[in-house]
């Protein structure tokens, strides 16, 4: 008799776990049921801002595999079906039809919890007004596009229609990407961020560079103030955002305050939830015997701080799914943890980060030195040379690379992967100084920016060692 | 009394050694004399093809620092002066003025040999004809530019003037870069390569991709034949290149057969020369007490094969110079060796390599598996997604990453540095599989090409392990 795998959530982790398990299984070994409360499976949430901007032309391009495609591969995908409870003793989940309200129990041999994340929504006055949108799901992306189209000018751009002014709340990944999308659509855009500089995923000195670039794109960047609430018109639509002592008129508001793990079901079932709010698993992504969790609802191990962290990112979600599927099928897969690598862009400004920022290093208890260098993406004399700023954190005394941040123009951001690989291997900045990285004038200066930054950091490490070490 | 540092060669290694030593020294500690036989100091030889193509507008952009700039920093730069002998016992070099023939002896306390490389020139009939050029020095670059201008049409392009057809001999780095330069200038270009596929710095299966791209740029690529000689006109100018059974008409010929260490002086002085033809040094780049060698004239340690190799590359030359200068000044600098990382491009095709190719791995005695994957530089749905092919070599049984090669369009090549950093740290392909590399749709698919290639290679490693290991 085949074992039943029940998967909660039909996006990256869930579908990847389902596909991987089936691919490694004998015929008839598994029956796989996926419950998805939304309308879509396996789509790129990370791509939504670029569909909204129009850079990606068609919504369907964001969908890697439709429910029917998964069904053709032998997966019983049940759309608009959500789990309302998990019973670990009875080995079953309670299922409810989102549209019809029908309920039933579904037994499982193996359970995959891939319920994703939910947006952080502060309880603000007027936050349920029309015209205020999150960007978490493809459905929400659709709502934004439809709303913009309703308010657009005849040329398809916002501006002269109803949607002249956008306010984006939060200047993190979603915030800056959505701000870009609004600007690309020709909409006056104001970004409001609580922190002193935008993009708190990097240090404020690097965030200041991002601010300058955002302002250069015509965005208004308001920092250091929290949103107090929304003014709502008689038609029930948002009219303005109140923040600090000011009122920012808004025809549309995008909430980009980040997400938190959607772990309520797991918590109610008695599974362990970590300090990050995510479901705790072992290295094989197992939350309990026969119960697996991964993706945005799970907590993962940070290799530098040693703590559990929550990082909602499609690449991790896909890795988790593959690992879970491999393990369910009887193979061995272990997630080695994260080091906080990420990349984003605002128009042609690229932002990369890996390891720990100063704030994160402080929180983890590290003593560290920093070094910041300016360089170019190519030889300085190359006509297409672009500027980039690289900041490096290295541990005091040991010189171990703790973090790196890059803010620069086209072609700079992906260098963060070199730092990531160095951190992964616990390299010191001294060891990095003479690494054999590729060089040719169209691709880097004779000393690549990575090497220059490492060298400067190594000097700082040297400098802080007392002449007569204790 | 100050110690005298004599430097043979005023390019990357020599001037970097001189500058670094002075920067770390007390006032008056060192007198630094640099002997340079050419007309220029501190220039980017790697940039010459791009100046010839016109992409870099001005020759002076390739010059990082002129003799006078170095003199202002306190270095006694003697141009058009070449050393003709080194006497290690007397601690002196014999110097001859290239233009005036004057000779003198110059004593040294510390000697830096940075005599660079000389082009490989096979003894072919007619090879001293006019119109046949190497691309090793800025002077040679000037000769090519002047020759092309003499033969150019009124619009500045080659074509209707005398320089309608170019033949490039050799399809390595210089060959493909010069072929690009000729094509950019509107000249019909044929590249003749002895090997079965162009660009033997990568494996033939990857070279075949380069061939297709070169042909797509309108170049004629002739492989598997050696050049037999040159037909010379009555005016003493080259008319054609004979190779195999064919004759290739040529108004200009570029020799791109690579370079070999210019180590004759060192050999004559009794310094050890390695199997690669380069000067042997210790890890501090010391060839003998008080005698240092680096850059294109030196042999370096390959971290994978364990052998001495000769790799002429500006980035190594600069590193050597800094290390030598640091050591002369009483500091500590050690060169950690190379892993064969390099990058190049032909028009918008990028080529990266690191570690060992199949041929090199065979020569070193490694058993290995290979994996080749096709991927994209960005999410597949990103409008600017570009194709890339990644090939990985991993050691049998251990799975240690031995090499990687990338051939792809804009934005693909620099990923080679991630592989380089992984090789530097002796990572296995299995360990690389779940590395935390950066992801966002404009920058990579959800599984970066590096990870996909590592995963496929890890499967190959698994596959070749017997089910019941001995």
TrEMBL record, chains A, B:
Its cofactor is FAD. The keyword Oxidoreductase applies. The keyword Transmembrane helix does not apply. It comes from the Bacteria. Keywords: FAD, Flavoprotein, Oxidoreductase, Redox-active center. Residues 4-308 form the FAD/NAD(P)-binding domain. Signal peptide: none annotated. Residues 344-446 form the Pyridine nucleotide-disulphide oxidoreductase dimerisation domain. Belongs to the class-III pyridine nucleotide-disulfide oxidoreductase family. This is FAD-dependent oxidoreductase.
């Amino acid at each position: 008799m085949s074992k039943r795998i029940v998967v909660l959530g039909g996006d990256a982790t869930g579908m990847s776990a389902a596909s991987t398990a089936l691919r490694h299984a004998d015929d008839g070994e598994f029956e796989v049921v996926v419950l998805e409360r939304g309308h879509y499976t396996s789509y790129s949430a990370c791509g939504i801002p670029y569909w909204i901007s129009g850079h990606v032309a068609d919504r369907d391009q964001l969908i890697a595999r439709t429910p029917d495609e998964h069904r053709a591969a032998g997966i019983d995908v049940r759309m608009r079906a959500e789990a309302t409870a998990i019973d670990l003793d009875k080995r079953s989940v309670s299922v409810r039809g989102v549209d019809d309200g029908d309920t039933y129990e579904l037994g499982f041999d193996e359970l995959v919890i891939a319920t994703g994340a939910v947006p952080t929504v502060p309880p603000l006055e007027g936050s349920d007004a029309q015209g205020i949108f999150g960007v978490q799901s493809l459905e929400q992306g659709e709502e934004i596009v439809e709303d913009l189209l309703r308010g657009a000018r005849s040329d398809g751009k916002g501006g002269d229609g109803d949607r002249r002014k956008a306010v984006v709340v939060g200047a993190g990944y979603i915030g800056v990407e959505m701000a870009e999308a609004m600007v690309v659509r020709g909409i006056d855009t104001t970004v409001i961020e609580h922190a002193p500089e935008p993009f708190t995923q990097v240090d404020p000195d690097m965030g200041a560079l991002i601010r300058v670039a955002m302002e250069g794109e015509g965005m208004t960047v308001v920092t250091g103030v929290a949103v107090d609430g929304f003014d709502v018109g008689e038609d029930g639509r948002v009219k303005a955002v109140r923040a600090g002592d000011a009122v920012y008129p808004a025809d549309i508001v995008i909430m980009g305050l980040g997400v938190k793990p959607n772990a309520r079901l797991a918590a109610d079932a008695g599974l362990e939830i970590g300090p990050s709010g995510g479901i705790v698993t072992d290295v094989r992504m197992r939350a309990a015997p026969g119960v697996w969790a991964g993706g945005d609802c799970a907590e993962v191990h940070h290799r530098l701080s040693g703590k559990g962290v929550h990082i909602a990112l499609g690449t991790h979600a896909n890795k988790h799914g593959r690992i879970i599927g491999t393990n369910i099928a009887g193979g061995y897969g272990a997630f080695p943890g994260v080091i906080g690598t990420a990349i984003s862009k605002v128009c042609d400004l690229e932002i990369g980060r890996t390891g720990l920022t100063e704030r994160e290093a402080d929180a983890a208890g590290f003593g560290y030195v920093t070094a910041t260098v300016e360089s170019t993406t190519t030889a300085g004399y190359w006509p297409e040379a672009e500027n980039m700023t690289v900041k490096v954190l290295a541990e005091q005394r040991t010189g171990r690379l703790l973090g790196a941040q890059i803010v620069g123009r086209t072609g700079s951001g992906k260098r963060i992967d070199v730092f990531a690989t160095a951190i992964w291997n616990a390299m010191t900045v001294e060891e990095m100084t003479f690494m054999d990285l590729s060089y040719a004038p169209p691709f880097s200066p004779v000393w690549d920016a990575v090497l220059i930054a490492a060298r400067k950091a190594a000097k700082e490490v040297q400098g802080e060692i007392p002449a007569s070490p204790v």
